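Sanity check

After download, print the first record. It should look like this:
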Amino acid sequence: MKKNIALLIMLIMTFVNNTFGQTSSYSNNNSAKATVNKVWVNKDVRQNGQLGIMIHADVSIKNMKGRNTDVVAYFFDIKKQQMRAVLNNYKTNDFHACNSKNVVPNYVETQYTDLKIFMPYDALPSISGYVRVEVSDRAAKKFLSNDKKYTPFNISQNNSGNNGNRNSGSNKSNNNNQNNNNQNNDPQIKVPVTVYCAFCAGSKICPDCAGQRTRYFGRDKIICTSCSGTGICDMCHGTGISMVVYQ
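Expected structure tokens:
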């Protein structure tokens, strides 16, 4: 009788160890992750009456079946500093330019060979820069990918004037364009045209604190978070311009 009980206990323990051991092992290997395989950009794309760039992404997503997954395009200037947002519909919580595409994978391992993310020209403060695509778990609020690849983009010069119209620096840019057009009668001669910073409108100082390095948060006076207390524009790094192009 005792032998039978001992044998039964051993069988139960073996079953429990095998069952929970396999479950534990599966759980440890069941971490969600994603890989950005490729990113490419098309310019001068029109969508819903807006002109902009279309970001294409080939991404692989694992262990996110049936869960909300965000594929996010972040935008950087030519120095690979994150661009400041100029439109509220195209920004992160800390006011950097971005746009995203939400997907819900149907399989444990899912590949999207051509996910499209549109970014209108009016939402970009600079006519050229870089885009970086990342994948995140919306519910867990964490990145699933760790892509450090920067894909360059360059807005058509014919449409670069749209950027200047969003700030007072556009008057300077438009005046320069008119003067240069008058001088540029010979199509073989190209002259430099200054594109002023969309964030500070060419003033070189931080517009959030007006160059004072501090600002008020409610009743408290704090160091300006936009310029980290330097007083200079964080987007153009105090140069006042985004880029000089030749037309």
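If your output differs, re-run the checksum step. Summary of this record's structure: DSSP finds three helices and twelve strands in the chain.
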